[in-house]
Amino acid sequence: MSTTDKPNLPDLRVSYDQGELDEHSAPADPVELFTHWIKDALAHKLPEPNAMSLATNGLDGTPTVRTVLLKGIDERGFHFYTNYESRKGHEIAADARASACFLWTDRHHQVCMKGKISKLDRADAEQYFASRPYGHQIGAWVSDQSVVIPGREWLEQRDAEMKSKFPEGQVPCPPHWGGYTLLPDEIEFWQGRVSRLHDRIRYRKENGMWVKVRLSP
């Protein structure tokens, strides 16, 4: 790649001037603030505001990260669904500690959290699976997620086989597919501000209570 073809990354800058975040007026419960921010992202029609980068500890000790979609929040934590036999599934089984990050660029908002992951009940998985479009349901049966395959043709052949096996409206939830929940013990909110003097408010669970502090940007 010639020097003229390279992106001019050092000169890429954005002025963050969308708002502010104050530790004194921020709610006592970080989930309340998270809910407000994701509703704000939805109101501004940001693409896939529920996309979260999920970092787990690799079996070789190296962290791995990928994007999953948040599908629910309750007292059990932040929910997502996937193949239990995937790479992340094996990593979660070996080490339940994980981190997640949401970035809503247009709103100059970022939320990072860490905690422990556990499986959701089978009933949760079946209920959510039943709400998925037919193609997505079939895809859960087609994909041996994270496994090396010979080519695209293999996927297309499996897709045809599964559609023949399971007509629309009759696709059961695969036994290897289900839900997880990340229950955070720390959540940090980042609000972009002018001159890189950003607002960073961290909530940490201490003795069963959320304690919030301001961090230097």
Label the CATH architecture.
Roll
Full CATH superfamily name = Electron Transport, Fmn-binding Protein, Chain A
Q: Give the low-pLDDT segments.
A: none
Give the CATH level 1 class: Mainly Beta
* Percent strand: 25-35%
Number of domains: 1
> How many strands?
9
Biggest pleated sheet:
9 strands, antiparallel
pLDDT averaged residue by residue = 94
Q: Could you please describe the fold and organization of this structure?
A:
The chain has helices at residues 30-43, 87-94, 122-131, 134-142, 152-165, and strands at residues 51-57, 63-69, 72-74, 77-83, 97-104, 109-119, 177-191, 199-206, 209-215. It is α+β, with helices and mostly antiparallel strands and 217 residues long. Strand 8 and strand 9 form a beta hairpin. The longest helix is centred in the first third of the chain and has 14 residues, at 30-43. The protein is globular and about 55 Å long.
At a glance:
With 217 residues, the chain is of the alpha+beta class.
Question: Can you tag this structure with a few keywords?
Answer:
single chain; 217 residues; alpha+beta; Pnp Oxidase, Chain A; nine-stranded antiparallel sheet; 5 helices; 34% strand; globular
